[in-house]
């Protein structure tokens, strides 16, 4: 596949900066190198932090209306370049063009949402003598460390929230998918003052340096739980604010009174969207034993109907596993299922090429199997039978993760009653997991610390300042 002629640079202090070292990421479809890009050095990081610190002095004092206008400017620039950016997303992630375009569309949704937000002062108490109010003040320089599965959406959501609240932001994308966000930052130099939004293509080590940098005030991290724990430890040294959006093992729970045909099709979409490489993808499906067999039949039919092809022009939610590391994790889970003779209702043989793995469905494996216990983050899903509510809740909650869940029932109130007993930050009722800019995303248990998105997410980019304003001139006089 021809590589369109494009160039990429780190964006530091409003300019594209080259670097002594150039690297390339790999096309997940072909394993061929993509575009050369500079690798950021420690010096680049220091230059970016200094530029952000300087920019913050002015940006934090710009009115909220002006900052909203600037984020609207980012919307316009992305709309004007949506085709190019969508293509870049598709090339770096291995997604179909349809999914690349969808990622741009959802990124625009996050930019638009934040451009419409503000955080007015709140009066929390008032009487004749005193008014107590809370003001939300920006933190300073935010370091955003991002993963590879939705490189544009997850970064733009952080950028938009940070900027509208008056912070400056430095984004470090995953080394597997640096391109779309680097291009977006380059396009944004026409809109934003230098230093307000910068991007550094960097290794894990540059990420680590950000977490202990004395002049970065907050780290917003999206990635694995394992890295999240390392980051939390490192941020403690400078007592940075942190938001950790981490891994999940979402349960999708199907009650016996649902319409099997439509629900099985929807659940299949929630399992295999982006080939399962989504933080809130369904990773375990619990189906009541009374409908298990017909559900499984319809589920398999729905999965078989998803186009599985190497042609990125075919609109499909399936694609390759994005990188070799993740491919190894998914293969390990498949091998474990084979070695333990778990029943593959679909896949599991060698229908694959390169990093493409055909969807696998494992029929009722034991609860302690790897495919149930681990976050697979790929195209393999266990379907599990349940019979009583107590047993269901115990099994669904028997995980250190607490990111999301789904409950499907004829009666929405019944779905909510079950959903409220699941230990997870986001629960979808009669839908598969569909993240939304208005919905606060905050993992429970080991799926995160703090949260982002929605109105509440803006608070994670601010410190609260409380004013105790005493009325009149009752200044206490000194006795002497
Ligand atoms: P990862 O943790 O391997 O890497 C994420 C980012 O952290 C990358 O930019 C990487 O370079 C950087 N990094 C790695 N080591 C670091 C260190 N010691 N210090 C600082 N930065 C470091 O995760 P990944 O494989 O890119 O992403 C997949 C994971 O992300 C899955 O577990 C998935 O569930 C999770 N995820 C969570 C959400 C959410 O919102 N909760 C969203 C998407 C993905």
From TrEMBL:
Keywords noted in UniProt: Oxidoreductase
Q: Which Pfam families match?
A: Aldedh
Q: Start and end of every Aldehyde dehydrogenase domain? A: 22-466
Respond yes or no to whether keyword Magnesium is given for this record. no
EC nos: 1.2.1.3
Q: Which residues form the active site?
A: 245
Q: Where are the transmembrane segments?
A: none
> What reactions does this protein catalyze?
an aldehyde + NAD(+) + H2O = a carboxylate + NADH + 2 H(+)
Reply yes or no: does the keyword Zinc-finger apply. Answer: no
Family label: Belongs to the aldehyde dehydrogenase family.
This protein is called what? aldehyde dehydrogenase (NAD(+))
């Amino acid at each position: 596949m021809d590589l369109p002629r494009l160039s990429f640079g780190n964006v530091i202090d409003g300019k594209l900066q080259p670097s002594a070292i150039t690297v390339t990421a790999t096309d997940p479809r072909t394993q061929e190198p993509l575009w050369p890009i500079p690798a950021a050095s420690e010096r680049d990081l220091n230059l970016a932090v200094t530029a952000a610190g300087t920019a913050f002095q002015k940006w934090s004092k710009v009115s909220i209306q002006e900052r909203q206008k600037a984020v609207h400017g980012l919307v316009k620039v992305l709309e004007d370049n949506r085709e190019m950016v969508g293509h870049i997303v598709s090339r770096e992630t291995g997604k179909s063009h349809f999914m690349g375009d969808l990622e741009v569309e959802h990124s625009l949704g996050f930019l638009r949402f934040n451009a419409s937000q503000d955080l007015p002062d709140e009066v929390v108490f008032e009487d004749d003598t005193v008014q107590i109010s809370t003001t939300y003040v920006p933190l300073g320089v935010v370091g955003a460390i991002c993963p590879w599965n939705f490189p544009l959406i997850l970064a733009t959501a952080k950028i938009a929230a940070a900027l509208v609240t008056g912070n400056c932001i430095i984004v470090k994308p995953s080394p597997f998918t640096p391109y779309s966000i680097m291009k977006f930052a380059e396009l944004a130099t026409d809109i934003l003052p230098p230093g307000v939004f910068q991007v550094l293509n960097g290794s894990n080590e540059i990420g680590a340096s950000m977490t202990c940098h004395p002049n970065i005030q907050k780290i917003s991290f999206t990635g694995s739980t394992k890295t999240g724990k390392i980051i939390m430890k490192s941020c403690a040294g400078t007592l940075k604010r942190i938001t950790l959006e981490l891994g999940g093992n979402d349960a999708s729970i199907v009650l016996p009174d649902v319409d099997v045909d439509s629900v099985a099709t929807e659940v299949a979409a929630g399992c295999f969207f982006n080939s399962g490489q989504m933080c809130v993808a369904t990773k375990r499906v619990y189906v009541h034993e009374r409908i298990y067999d017909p559900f499984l039949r319809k589920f398999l039919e729905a999965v078989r109907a998803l186009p599985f092809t190497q042609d990125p022009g075919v609109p499909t939610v399936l694609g390759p596993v994005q990188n070799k590391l993740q491919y190894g994790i998914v293969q390990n889970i498949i091998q474990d299922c084979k070695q333990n003779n778990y029943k593959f209702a679909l896949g599991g043989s060698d229908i694959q090429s390169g990093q493409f793995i055909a969807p696998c469905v494992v029929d009722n494996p034991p609860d302690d199997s790897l495919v149930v216990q681990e976050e697979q983050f790929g195209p393999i899903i266990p379907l599990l039978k349940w019979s009583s509510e107590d047993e269901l809740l115990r099994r669904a909650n028997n995980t250190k993760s607490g990111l999301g869940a789904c409950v499907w029932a004829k009666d929405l109130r019944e779905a909510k009653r079950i959903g409220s007993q699941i230990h997870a930050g986001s629960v979808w009722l009669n839908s598969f997991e569909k993240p939304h800019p208005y919905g606060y995303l905050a993992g429970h248990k080991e799926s995160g610390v703090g949260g982002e998105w929605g109105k509440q997410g803006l608070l994670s980019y601010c410190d609260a300042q409380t004013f105790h304003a005493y009325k009149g001139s009752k200044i206490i006089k000194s006795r002497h």
